[in-house]
Amino acid sequence: MFHQLTEQAVNGSCQGAAPDCNRSADGDALQLPTFSTAAKVRVIITFSLCAVSAVCNLLVLWAAGRGGKRKSHVRILIMHLTAADLLVTFIVMPVDAAWNITVQWQAGDAACRLLMFLKLVAMYSCAFVTVVISLDRQSAILNPLGITEAKRKSKIMLAVAWTMSVILSLPQLFIFHNVTITVPENFTQCTTHGSFVQRWQETLYNMFTFTCLFLLPLVIMIFCYTRILVEISSRMAQSSSKSQFLEPQNKDFLNIPKARMRTLKMSIVIVTSFIVCWTPYYLLGLWYWLFPEKMEETVSHSLTHMLFIFGLFNACLDPITYGLFTIHFHHGLRRRCRSTNTRTELGHPCPRQMSFLSSHRQFVSSGHSTHSEEVSDGANSKNASVRNVSVTKI
């Protein structure tokens, strides 16, 4: 987010560090930021998103964390993505809303450095974990026989993702600090003003962050799903050409198992929502870094507020997406409850196991669960069923 990476902080009706933000376009008058109407709307929406995101992601984290110590690597990936979304929920959203209310920074220099560091860690972790999911899905489709290594590889990639998130965010601890002006009145802001000797140094740092935070993950995601699309298209072509030679019971062996395809679709939606939600805001930041004066003249502060809120909406979409792709299990559970026609305690969880809670039962169920995606695509039906039983215990 460019307001965290430059000397500018989007607060009230002004976007800028105290010394620069208070100057008008002609450079003569000083104008302190205020708690404008646009900022008030932003605060209300941000707190609303924070509440929704907290409930949804905590439910997903609780549901995915149940079922014993042995969890599928898909469930582990979802848990890490949920943890990254919770960092955005409990750090980025409240800090942004409170900062808009107070207009200036009132938490002190130490909190300024720490919170700017944690905010960037949250953003990096969301991007990097989404990349890990893309790489995992690519491996699952292109190398279906390497199931035994999938969980180990995903753990390594997740460790690298979180480690890199922390390392790449460390400069925030040193470049952000409190800046105070006395004219026209005392005003303190958390900013990078004065941390860079030349403007090109700041632009270089911002471009590096933009590349690592958005551009590089975007390229990797597009590359992974392009390879997946090419592989699926190739299999469909092979299946079509060989279908006339196959017996009816063996025509499905070239197809991707339904559970794996469902997980692939879920990951595609997660990646797409990340790209759609954050691309407009990051492009606006790129515009500001390259042509700050022109952007200030062209783009209204209300639009900046809207694009930032749209980016935050991604933290709410991930658990919703997760729930939608497992909600069919909830419907099956309700039908089972109705068929039993009993008054046992089984009737209580039925209406309550909504999309997010049903994900737990989805993962701990038998061969029809997401675990069954581990079955090799190239095996025959008998071997596939055998692997299906064994892999669900992974």
TrEMBL record:
GO terms for molecular function: G protein-coupled receptor activity; peptide binding; protein-hormone receptor activity. Pfam families: 7tm_1. It is a multi-pass membrane protein. GO terms for cellular component: plasma membrane. Residues 378-394 have a biased composition (Polar residues). Its main location: membrane. This is Type II GnRH receptor. PANTHER family: GONADOTROPIN-RELEASING HORMONE II RECEPTOR-RELATED, NEUROPEPTIDE RECEPTOR-RELATED G-PROTEIN COUPLED RECEPTOR. Coiled coil: none annotated. It comes from the Eukaryota. Keywords: Cell membrane, Disulfide bond, G-protein coupled receptor, Membrane, Phosphoprotein, Receptor, Transducer, Transmembrane, Transmembrane helix. GO terms for biological process: cellular response to hormone stimulus. It is found in: Cell membrane. The lineage of its organism: Eukaryota, Metazoa, Chordata, Craniata, Vertebrata. InterPro entries: GPCR_Rhodpsn (IPR000276), GPCR_Rhodpsn_7TM (IPR017452), GphnRH_fam_rcpt (IPR001658).
